[in-house]
Amino acid sequence: MIRVLIVDDHPMFRDGLRQLLSDGVEFQVVGEAGNGAEALAVLKSAAADVVVMDLHMPRMDGVTAIERIRAGFPEVQVLVLSTYDTDGDVVPAMAAGAIGYLLKDVSREELREGVRAAARGETVLSRTAAGRLVGHVREPELLKPREHELLRLVASGATNKEAAAALFVSEATVKAYLLRIYSRLGARDRASAVAEGYRRGLLG
């Protein structure tokens, strides 16, 4: 039986997934969480084979959660189930260690098969997610996942202190990330880094 942890900040969507993946024969939902921080807490007490996770969540986003799950629970596979399929979503999630990326408009059976494949350690990608990754491979990687996430926070107006809290790092680390971002994008300050990020399609 495949043990599943559902992570999404919308309770009604979690309810639907729980009904779909609680047949008691092939799938068992061992827990639910509304964000990445809650998911990590659940994994400490509930063994799971696959985490079905959204990306855009409060407190701790999906990319950060994927990194921490892969570091702390390497035997657990993370399957992203998201509404978004931009480069800024797909690439960082896969780089962080997700086994697959599906969109929320998949059919019930496509999702079930995706969970099965993830449990077997097989990569699962929607057609658009696969296209994003192929396009990314053709171009040199500009920013590391954490740097990319920081750039998105800066673009949203976050201060260094707010970004540090969101990324669970120190302000000194944020400043170091920013310097690397400036260097890689050829930017001189936060505003020009954000402008360059949009120009290069890093921010959607």
Care to give the gist of this entry?
The protein is of the alpha/beta class and 204 residues long. It folds into 2 domains: 2-138, Response regulator (Rossmann fold); 145-199, Winged helix-like DNA-binding domain superfamily/Winged helix DNA-binding domain (Arc Repressor Mutant, subunit A, Orthogonal Bundle), CATH 1.10.10.
Order of SSEs: EHEHEHEHEHEHHHHH
Q: Tell me, what is the CATH class of the largest domain? A: Alpha Beta
Q: Which radius of gyration do the C-alpha atoms yield? A: 17 Å
**Largest sheet composition:** 6 strands, parallel
Taking the alpha carbons of the first and last residues, their distance comes to 39 Å
Q: Looking across the biggest beta sheet, what order are the strands in?
A: 2-1-3-4-5-6
CATH architecture label name of the largest domain: 3-Layer(aba) Sandwich
Classification by helices and strands: alpha/beta
Q: The CATH topology of the largest domain is what?
A: Rossmann fold
Q: Which percent range describes the beta-strand content?
A: 5-15%
> What best-fitting shape do the alpha-carbon axes yield?
globular
Low-confidence stretches: none
| Overall mean pLDDT | 90
Query: How many β strands by DSSP?
Result: 6
Tell me the number of helical segments per DSSP (H or I, 4 or more residues long). Answer: 10
Provide the helix percentage. Answer: 40-55%
Domain module tally: 2
By CATH's scheme, which homologous superfamily of the largest domain applies?
Answer: Response regulator
Protein name: Response regulator transcription factor
Organism: Paractinoplanes ovalisporus
Pfam families: GerE, Response_reg
InterPro entries: CheY-like_superfamily, NreC/VraR/RcsB-like_REC, Sig_transdc_resp-reg_C-effctor, Sig_transdc_resp-reg_receiver, Tscrpt_reg_LuxR_C, WalR-like
